[in-house]
Amino acid sequence: MNSILIIGQLLDAVGAVEGRKKFQKLVHILQYLKLIPSHFKFGYLHYGPYSEGLDVELRTFGEEGLIQEEQIETGPYKAYRFTAKEKLTNLVKKLGDSKPLSHAEVVKELNGKSSLELEAISTILYLRSSGKDGKALKDTFCELKPKLAKDFEQRLKAARELEKRVLPKAA
Question: How many structural domains compose the chain?
Answer without folding.
Answer: 1
